[in-house]
Structure prediction request, 399 residues.
Amino acid sequence: MKGVVILNKQKLQLPLQTLSLVVGFMVWVILSSLMPFIKEDINLTMGQVSWVTAVPVILGSILRVPIGYWTNRFGARWIFLISLIFLIFPVYYISIANSFIGLIIAGLFIGVGGAIFSTGVTSLPKYYPKERHGFVNGIYGVGNIGTALTAFGAPIIAGQFGWEVTVRLLIIPLILFAILNFIFGDRKEPKVSTPLKDQIKAVYLNQKLWFLSLFYFLTFGSFVAFTVYLPNFLVSEFNLTEVDAGLRTAGFIALCTLIRPLGGWLGDKFDPFKILILVFTGLTLSGVLLSFSPTITLYTVGTLTVAICSGIGNGTIFKLVPFYFSKQGGIVNGIVAAMGGLGGFFPPLILSTVFSLTGHYAIGFMALSQFALASLIIVIWMYYTDKLNLSNQIVENTG
Prediction:
């Protein structure tokens, strides 16, 4: 009977951790989702808007490295519990903020909501065989849907009750899932106690770590960047209503998120490098399309192509992490995930800077295209290098 209880608790970890990530991501993007409303009460310049929406990405990226390590050392139960309780305080502070500085301070600390992504990708593979890691991490990545829930739901609620009340409502799911993690989190999760310094020394010279980081910098960075920049951009550039912009942003997020398990499954089923070749080809072409400042119809085609490619790429890349780094999964997951978060920090700032200098966004989107093209070249090189190494091993074994 005791063994059955332990097994059932292990089965609970995937839905529990995925839903906890949903709540964290709901909090992570609350400022960008409500920015059209916040600007009506707090006077902000275009540059300040870019900083307020980008700042949550900083801590959400940097903390992913230690959180991946802490998850291996203490278990997902404690990391989720502490993180969700911590988020209650900056969320409440946002609701009473009345200045640019107040929004920046609160925005920095809600970055914890994005940082907890490292928890699940480090914890969940412990419960499943290697051939299912891509799909499992893809399912966990569906937690990104939390950003869609906020992007779609927050403007509707704010239109009825005000943005301050909308922010405070997030405290309810934070408390609920802190309690659920305390009760149902796995106390028996296998732990890894290797010192952080030793884990970093074991991987930092490995070029595959930095290639995977670059790939995730682009795929997840695209997802985050479009998530934080679309709500305000669609209102200011195409004169859409706040609710319409929120709905379109939610559609982008939902497509990118729901297709992520497909990327993980494809990475399990086929050669992950072939999948990534298609991903970066699509991102290269969509970046070129968006750089020509198209109509809303073509702009929609471009952004949805980014959503599909980045979603599949996000799922596929985390199939490769345990494949190459089975013994340092926690720290490598953290580093790769951190680079992905930072990939979402810079583009909104670059786009706003480019627009202030040139009056359009073409150069910024062309940069996306060129980064994707560079990644495509590296993936092709890695693919043929791995094939060559495999052939050499076969020759040596048969010889």
About this structure: Residues 1-6, 390-399 have pLDDT under 50 and may be disordered. The CA atoms of residues 17 and 243 lie 30 Å apart. The chain has 21 helices and no strands.
